């Protein structure tokens, strides 16, 4: 049995492509893998931003405190 995510139907594993929309199982699977890779890349980018952003934020607050210290 193969499954078409486009039509959300099961179809014969003998069929090369979905009988309803014509998308082949292999093409759909390849697309899914590509999407998963893009997702992983996005998650990694988010982590990099977090790793850079938090120290930057702390540094900024520290700088502000120093600045107020100088004024006061
Ligand atoms: Zn289909």
Quick take:
The protein has 72 residues and is mainly α. It has one helix and two strands, in the order E-E-H.
Layout of helices and strands, plus pairs?
Blueprint: E1 2-4, E2 9-11, H1 25-71
Antiparallel strand pairs: 1-2
This protein binds zinc ion (ZN).
Labels describing this entry:
about 65% helix; two-stranded antiparallel sheet; binds zinc ion; rod-shaped; single chain; 2 strands; mainly alpha; about 70 residues
Structure description:
The longest helix is centred in the middle third of the chain and has 47 residues, at 25-71. 3% of the residues are buried. The protein has one domain. The chain is rod-shaped, with a radius of gyration of 25 Å. The chain is built from one helix and two strands. With 72 residues, it is mainly alpha-helical. The chain has a two-stranded antiparallel ribbon with strand order 1-2. The site of zinc ion has 7 residues, from loops.
């Amino acid at each position: 049995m193969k499954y078409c995510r486009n039509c959300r139907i099961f179809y014969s594993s003998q069929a090369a492509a979905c009988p309803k929309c014509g998308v082949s199982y292999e093409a759909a699977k390849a697309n899914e893998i590509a999407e998963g890779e893009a997702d992983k890349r996005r998650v990694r980018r988010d982590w990099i931003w977090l790793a850079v952003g938090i120290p930057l934020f702390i540094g900024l607050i520290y700088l502000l405190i120093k600045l107020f210290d100088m004024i006061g």
